[in-house]
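Human: I would love a firmer grasp of how sequence relates to backbone shape in proteins. Take your time, and here it is.
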Amino acid sequence: MTDELPHAEALPAAMVARPQWLCWRTEDRDGKATKVPVDPSTESFASTTDAETWTDFADAREYATRTEVGVGFVFTDDDPLVGVDLDDCRDPDDGTLTDWARDIVERLDSFTEVSPSGTGVHVIVEGELPGGRNRHGDVELYETARFFTVTGDVLSAYPQSVRERPVPLEAIHTEYVAPDEEGATTASGDATDDWTAATGDGPGNDLGDEELLRKAKDASNGAKFARLYRGNTAGYESHSEADMALCSMLAFWTGGDAEQMDRLVRDSGLMRPKWDEVHFSDGATYGERTIERAVAGTTEFYEDSGSWQLFPEDATGNAGAVAASGSDESTSASEDESASTADPEVIETLEREIRRLEAANERLVAELQAECERREQLEEQLTEGNQSGILSWFQS
């Protein structure tokens, strides 16, 4: 993190004018520094999909100044901004950029600043990302449900305002991020396989990140999903079990879209450096394999219509994958019944009642725990009092 926080005058008006600011602090997770978004109003975790956890630039900077943390900007569907994040491309001593990073920065020719580490740069442009993946190697492109740390340590050779760059942005996405038949080319020039294509076994759907998270949190198990997404691992024996639980839920809601799952996990409170560590002999990272297993273990997926159907159970008792509408393999009366769409109003009413009961249950559990703690304190006081009384009797 840079020593001095940026002033509004040093940042593009297109960013400062929007109330899409939060703060961030560094937390040590598994021995590595991780940037955690913070809501300046509540001092709790912020979310890049919950506008209630953001504020304006002035308030974010005031909180950051007072608590010695950083400030960040959230990209959303409501703004035309796209953030280009280039990692491990800058010499922190002399400011020299690698050839590939200089190529990207010069072609975008828009507001560019140094990242907090000093070894990367951020470019902000106006445009729209093409479909498909949005990160590969050291290049990441984001236009929604993501926050960028903001330093204000600008590269003066480039514009100090955000410029419209739809054409070069699409070209850079095609050259540096989008995969081709023989594998995408990384920023360093090495060809790699697209693991997300290999592991994305589900049918997919058209849910955007924000809509998906809203639906997941409003579902009957929404409270559980929300807790996991905030980073709460209570009820799980390990962080890894919590990771798998969240990924299993995301597999359902994303239709098994591995790329979207990866993106959402990175924005969750469960994200940690271990996610990108290679843990397997074939070069797969912990995160890649966790997503792969979650998708493989998911037997039903959300469809945009709000309904889904299953193949009949196989000999092992496991349900098969989602059947496409009109599939010849889905012919039994029981399957036809399971594929029928229930009344949306009835479902919504039931889900509201379930959420109400879950909230009431959580309150009762909390009250019970508080009562147990109170009784334990009373017992301790009573025990200490009895011991003191006995000791006084002997001394007398």
The mean pLDDT is 79. The first strand starts at residue 21 and ends at 29.
